Amino acid sequence: MKIGAIEAGGTKFVCAVGNEEGNIFEKVVIPTEAPEITMPKVYDFFSDKGIEKMGVGSFGPIDINEKGGTYGQIQKTPKIDWIDFPLAGDIEEKLGIPVVVDTDVNVAALSEARWGNATDVDTCLYITVGTGIGAGAIVNGGTLTGLSHPEMGHIAVRRHEQDTFAGTCPYHKDCLEGMAAGPAIEARWGKAGVELADDPIVWEMEAYYLAQALVNYIYILSPERIIMGGGVMQQEQLFDLIRKNVVEMLNGYVSSPRLTKEHINDYIVPPGLTNEAGVKGALGLAIR
Ligand SMILES: Nc1ncnc2c1ncn2[C@@H]1O[C@H](COP(=O)(O)OP(=O)(O)OP(=O)(O)O)[C@@H](O)[C@H]1O
Ligand SMILES: [Zn+2]
């Protein structure tokens, strides 16, 4: 069976045709402009491919609750052209096939669980630290759908004692994303993260915030592995700093050998998949 997959991102839509084994045969990249411009190009690509269903991993917020009447509809995003756009509904109507949609981070988590660095566990978390901070969780093989999807980037964090930065989140100011996403680093230090590679306090502070978030996710979701990706995590020194902080902050409270100094390197890890993770995950979503 041929299956369609879309990684719907803030800058580009990656569209692919694949099969149930997760193989991708054909792929195209379409820039994200307004829906009236982007979507016809998407339909052009898929129109003669003979696909029978479609999986979509989308930027959010997006309604992923099948029980409401607005499944697959984009919500209040800073990308104003897309607010209230019925992404899943429009694809179903134009291509005449069933569509399954989830968030980009849930789909990345699914991809890592199926093909990447979490194939040996049932419950894992994927967090991206980039322009924003978002996380997706696979719990016993599936993603979490409640009111809609989790918003793990906007949790409260305790302030680092040397940090006087106000925070960048338009909704909460000094939430995790407001203190630790790429733009927060740049606003706090006056330079992009990539130019601050040799400044230890930058990464010590960054690790302090990210570790607090991971500790909260560990307490609430009990993931068997945490995968960290996104532009900011290109600073590889962050991994060891975060691991060290997580072990210290947990202070032995959760009794698992995975959470000890000896094993934490295999617990907090980079992604196993690189360029095709999003679109492969979208394929995985339709396969399930
Ligand atoms: N090597 C690097 N070191 C530190 N920061 C980096 C590095 N590369 C990118 N960044 C920061 O990461 C952010 C961009 O994130 P990313 O590359 O994940 O893109 P994105 O897809 O726009 O993010 P998002 O996943 O939030 O949509 C920018 O703020 C940038 O300064
Ligand atoms: Zn926030």
Structure characterization notes:
This protein has 288 residues and is α/β, with parallel strands linked by helices. It has 2 domains: 3-104 and 276-287, ATPase, nucleotide binding domain (Nucleotidyltransferase, domain 5, 2-Layer Sandwich); 117-270, ATPase, nucleotide binding domain (Nucleotidyltransferase, domain 5, 2-Layer Sandwich). The protein is built from 8 helices and 10 strands. The strands form 2 sheets. It has a 5-stranded mixed sheet, sandwiched between helices. A 5-stranded mixed sheet has the order 8-7-6-9-10, with helices on both faces. The protein starts with a strand and ends with a helix. Residues 10, 128, 130-132, 182-183, 186, 192-194, 230-232, 234-235 line the site of adenosine-5'-triphosphate. This is fructokinase. Belongs to the ROK (NagC/XylR) family. GO terms for molecular function: ATP binding; fructokinase activity; metal ion binding. Its EC number is 2.7.1.4.
Q: What's the tally of helices? A: 8
How are the strands of the largest sheet arranged? 3-2-1-4-5
Query: What small molecules are bound in this structure?
Result: adenosine-5'-triphosphate, zinc ion
Largest sheet: 5 strands, mixed
**What is the averaged pLDDT score?**
95
Range of helix content: 25-40%
Order of helices and strands: EEEHEHEHEEEHHHEHEH
Low confidence ranges: none
Distance between the termini: 13 Å
Q: What overall form do the CA principal axes indicate? A: globular
Estimate the strand proportion. 15-25%
Keywords: ATP-binding, Carbohydrate metabolism, Kinase, Magnesium, Metal-binding, Nucleotide-binding, Transferase, Zinc
Family: Belongs to the ROK (NagC/XylR) family.
GO molecular function, one term: metal ion binding
Pfam families: ROK
